[in-house]
Amino acid sequence: MTDTKNGGGWKVGxxxxxGIALVFAxxxxxxxxxxGHPLLVGLLxxxxxxxxxxxxxxxxxxxxxxxxxxxxxxxxxxxxxxIAIGTAxxxxxxxxxxxxxxxxxxxxxxxxxxxxxxxxxxxxLMLRAMVQAHRESDELQRRIDGxxxxxxxxxxxxxxxxxxxxVSAVRSKWPMMPTFHxxxxxxxxxxxxxxxxxxxxx
Amino acid sequence: xKNDLSQRRQQRGWRQxxxxxxxxxSRQTINAIExxxxxxxxxxxxxIAALFKCRIEDIFKP
Lengths: 202, 62
Prior knowledge:
The structure holds 2 protein chains of 2 kinds. Chain A is mostly helical. Chain A is 81% helix and 0% strand. Chain B has 5 helices and 2 strands. Chain B has helices at residues 5-11, 16-23, 27-34, 42-51, 56-59; strands at residues 2-3, 60-61. Chain B has a two-stranded antiparallel ribbon with strand order 1-2. In chain B, helix 2 crosses helix 3. The longest helix of chain B has 10 residues, at 42-51. Chain B is globular, with a radius of gyration of 10 Å. The chains are: A mainly alpha, B mainly alpha. Chain A binds chain B through residues 1-4, 66-72, 137-141, 143, 198, 200-202, and chain B through 6, 10, 15-17, 20-21, 24-29, 31-32, 34-35, 37-38, 40-41, 44.
């Protein structure tokens, strides 16, 4: 007999889905508004933060249903707090930097580049949090993370390469895929692969 | 690799999370070992053997 508890994962999925839908809805509303509308920045900045809060709550209830140890919960809480700080930095600064850039058409390229890069500090914080979480996790979790990272690298590497082949063949009809999408794609595929692998080892 | 970790744990009246806390790993790791889906690292195998006061090969069978 084992005391395996695999239920509850769907709640995290639903919460994540609701959060993402909320972000998209906010972006859609914001897109319909005029520049400078007071609701615009509020929607764009706070909707990802609301999504994070919803996800945090659902992850806590998932951990409770999984009978996790206190040390494990502390580790997960630390990781989520670090990632939330990076995310909050990114979503707060990206709009400020875009607003500044829109007013600096004739500025020195170094200044423009520096302002354009400020949101990337948030991404660096997120990436550092992921590496720290990997180092602090136990051996099975490290194996799952590692396998998921290899799968994500292979899938995104193959996907972007194949896309580039198709796009270069019909470049007059399709736009090139921006490299901007590679990072989020890697994280998304890594998350899906991690979810599948976690189920395999359960 | 087969093992009798589940029986040994239950003989002591421990839940998976109790054993996980004693070994400093997650409950999922204990579960994966018990259902033969994951072979522990050598340091973890030694820690398990030390906790149950036996040899590694008494618990794990190829």
